[in-house]
């Protein structure tokens, strides 16, 4: 029999203690914010490495590639958000096996989508570049970057699932560890390839691919207990619950609205890149820097989104309306204060 770690049920503050709830939200959000703070390092490293290639075309190619992958991959961000919410509900209901099955089901979906994206990469790239005006040959560089980076699709999407599961289980230190590994290894490989090889923009892409699969392996190892719990019952075949119609319908019902919301958001970023390309390679490159500033704020606020995700899911699993109310109120207040601070900083 597979031995797995006993589940740990989080201790929640009293329903009427608002300051304690804010502290609890911060305890969940701060590690995620710290881990997200390393994400811009990858963009900064890409920008620095490509900036030393001697022309703006390399920088523009990486910037456009980042927009395209941000759009293609994050459209499937429901794999993280839906998984996190459903796992949190299972945790609140003290159903560890159900939490593991949510994760396995989402992983199967992520790998299927990732392989489909690899198969469809040529038309996807053609569609992505259709509205963009080439300048100084950056599109050829972008194609090189795109085709290599797409090899990471299964790992990237599966990584969304693993992070969602860890957030749902309120194991935010593990989220911090994986994100640090992913982003710092990406930066290190990026600089290493630039310093020791002549790969150029291909080295930037390969650095991301290697880092994504490295982080995936560590994430699977950290969740071996939950995955083992889902697969441990030998009396029920995995395919019987993996494709259970009601569970799949629930997952994709939750995912549907998230998919549409994210599609609209990414369309705005794509429009910005397409419009910038028509104004020249310098404007396109400058917009990439501005987007990095916006993403910095987004990554910080995402910590509160993670906290709200797991706490509201946990409260729903417990069927505790007072807990749900406190989680929403504390997360919203702290996120609003953080947004105001960023706004004032950018204004200054």
List the helices and strands and how they pair.
Layout: H1 18-37, H2 39-51, H3 56-74, H4 78-92, H5 96-119, H6 121-129, H7 138-149, H8 153-168, H9 172-196, H10 201-222, H11 224-231, H12 238-242, H13 245-278, H14 281-318, H15 321-347
Helix pairs in contact: 1-9, 1-14, 1-15, 2-3, 2-9, 2-14, 3-7, 3-13, 3-14, 4-5, 4-8, 4-13, 4-14, 5-8, 5-11, 6-7, 7-10, 8-10, 9-10, 13-14, 14-15
Main beta sheet strand tally, sense and closure: none
Q: Summarize the amount of helix as a percent range.
A: over 70%
Q: Give the structural class.
A: mainly alpha
- Give the DSSP E fraction (strand runs of 2 or more residues): under 5%
Count of helices? 15
Distance between the terminal alpha carbons, to the nearest Å?
Answer: 61 Å
Low-confidence regions: 1-6
What is the H/E string?
Answer: HHHHHHHHHHHHHHH
Instruction: Give the beta-strand count.
Output: 0
Radius of gyration equals 21 Å
User: What is the arithmetic mean of pLDDT?
Assistant: 80
| Molecular shape | globular
At a glance:
The protein is an all-alpha fold.
Explain this structure.
With 348 residues, the protein is an all-alpha fold. The chain has helices at 18-37, 39-51, 56-74, 78-92, 96-119, 121-129, 138-149, 153-168, 172-196, 201-222, 224-231, 238-242, 245-278, 281-318, 321-347. Helix 1 packs antiparallel against helix 14 (281-318), helix 4 (78-92) packs parallel to helix 14 and helix 13 (245-278) runs antiparallel to helix 14. It is globular. The chain starts with 17 loop residues before the first helix and ends with a helix.
């Amino acid at each position: 029999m597979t031995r797995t770690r006993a589940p740990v049920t989080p201790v929640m503050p009293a329903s009427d203690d608002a300051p304690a709830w804010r502290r609890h939200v911060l305890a969940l959000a701060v590690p995620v914010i710290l881990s997200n703070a390393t994400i811009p390092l990858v963009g900064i490293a890409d920008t620095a490495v490509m900036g030393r290639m001697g022309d703006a075309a390399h920088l523009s190619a990486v910037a456009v590639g980042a927009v395209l992958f941000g759009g293609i991959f994050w459209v499937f961000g429901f794999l993280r958000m839906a998984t996190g919410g459903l796992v949190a509900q299972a945790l609140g209901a003290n159903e560890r096996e159900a939490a593991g099955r949510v994760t396995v089901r989402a992983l199967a979906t992520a790998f299927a989508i990732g392989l489909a994206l690899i198969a469809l990469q040529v038309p996807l790239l053609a569609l992505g570049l259709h509205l963009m005006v080439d300048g100084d040959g950056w599109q050829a560089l972008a194609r090189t970057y795109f085709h290599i980076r797409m090899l990471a699709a299964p790992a990237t999407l599966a990584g969304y699932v693993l992070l969602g599961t860890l957030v749902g289980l309120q194991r935010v230190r593990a989220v911090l560890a994986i994100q640090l590994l992913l982003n710092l290894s990406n930066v290190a490989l990026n600089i290493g390839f630039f310093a020791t090889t002549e790969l150029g923009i291909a080295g930037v892409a390969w650095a991301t691919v290697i880092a994504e699969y490295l982080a995936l392996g560590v994430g699977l190892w950290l969740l071996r207990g939950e995955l083992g719990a889902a697969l441990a019952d030998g009396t029920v075949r995995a395919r019987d619950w993996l494709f259970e119609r009601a569970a799949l319908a629930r997952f994709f019902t939750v995912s549907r609205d998230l998919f549409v919301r994210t599609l609209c958001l990414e369309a705005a970023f794509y429009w910005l890149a397409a419009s910038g390309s028509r104004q020249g390679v310098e404007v396109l490159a400058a917009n990439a820097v501005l987007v990095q500033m916006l993403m910095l704020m987004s990554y910080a606020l995402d910590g509160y989104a993670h906290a709200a995700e797991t706490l509201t899911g946990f409260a729903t699993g417990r069927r505790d309306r007072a807990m749900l109310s406190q989680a929403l109120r504390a997360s919203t207040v702290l996120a609003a204060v953080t947004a105001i601070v960023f706004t004032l900083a950018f204004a200054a």
